[in-house]
Specification:
single chain; 208 residues; alpha/beta; Purple Acid Phosphatase, chain A, domain 2; six-stranded mixed beta sheet; four-stranded mixed beta sheet; 26% helix; 19% strand
C-alpha cells in the first residue's frame, strides 16, 4: 500500500469496518464465491505492474524499457483473452511514480475483469474486491481461494490458493505450482506475461 493510501482516513475507516465484520462473523472473513461452469473461458494473472520501470530490473523482465513492457503486456492479454472471456486479476496492475491508475489500463484490456485488491496501486473508481474478504473461485468442481498475498491465507483454509505478490523472487517456496503448499503463483513473470487459462491450472494442480 502506498503511504498516501495508508494515511488516508477513509482507508482507516474501511479497515475498522472489515475488523468489525470479522468479529461479527466469529473470527472469519466474509466470503464471496464466484462460480464458473465452463461456458466461457476463464483466465488468471497478477502483478502486471504497468508503467513500473524498475520492475524490469527487480524481476529480470525481458524488456528494454517500460514502453515495450506495457505494449507487450497489453498485446499478450488481448491476443489470449476474448471480449466474452473472464479474467480474475489478483492485484497490482500498475505501480511507480507517475503511473496511470488501474482504471486506465482496464480500458485497454479484453474480457470481464474480476479485480482483487493488491497492495501497490491506485485503482481509482473501479470495482475492486478487498483482501479482507475470502474470495473463492469454483471451477469445474474445484475450489480455489483467490488472493493477492499468500501470507493472507486464513488458517482455516486447507484447499488450493491462487495468488500473486511473490513475482519470481522466491521460486523455491512460490513456483508456478507448489503441490506441497497447494499454491499457484500467477504473477506475470510465472505465466510468461500472458493470462493463463484456468484449464491449464487444473492440469498443473492435478499432476504430480
Amino acid at each position: 500500500m502506498r503511504r498516501k493510501k495508508a494515511l488516508n482516513r477513509s482507508e482507516l475507516m474501511r479497515t475498522f469496518k472489515y475488523v468489525k465484520e470479522i468479529k461479527e462473523n466469529e473470527g472469519k472473513r466474509n466470503r464471496i464465491d464466484f462460480v464458473e461452469e465452463g461456458r466461457r473461458k476463464v483466465f488468471l494473472i497478477s502483478d502486471t505492474h504497468f508503467d513500473h520501470a524498475n520492475i524490469i530490473k527487480y524481476c529480470k523482465r525481458p524488456f528494454n524499457n517500460v514502453e515495450e513492457m506495457n505494449s507487450v503486456l497489453v498485446d499478450n492479454w488481448n491476443k489470449a483473452v476474448g471480449k466474452q472471456d473472464v479474467v480474475y486479476f489478483l492485484g497490482d496492475m500498475a505501480f511507480g511514480k507517475g503511473s496511470r491508475p488501474a482504471s486506465f489500463w482496464l480500458q485497454q484490456l479484453n474480457g470481464e475483469i474480476i479485480y482483487i485488491e493488491g497492495n501497490h496501486e491506485e485503482t481509482g473508481k473501479i470495482m475492486v474486491y478487498p483482501s479482507a474478504y475470502d474470495i473463492t473461485l469454483k471451477y469445474k468442481g474445484n475450489d480455489f481461494l483467490l488472493l493477492h498475498d499468500p501470507a493472507q491465507k486464513p488458517a482455516y483454509w486447507q484447499g488450493w490458493v491462487i495468488h500473486g505478490h511473490k513475482h519470481n523472487n522466491d521460486l523455491e517456496n512460490y513456483p508456478l505450482v507448489s503441490h506441497k503448499n497447494k499454491t499457484i503463483n500467477v504473477c506475470a513473470e510465472l505465466v510468461n506475461y500472458i493470462p493463463i487459462n484456468a484449464d491449464d491450472l487444473l492440469l498443473y494442480s492435478h499432476s504430480n
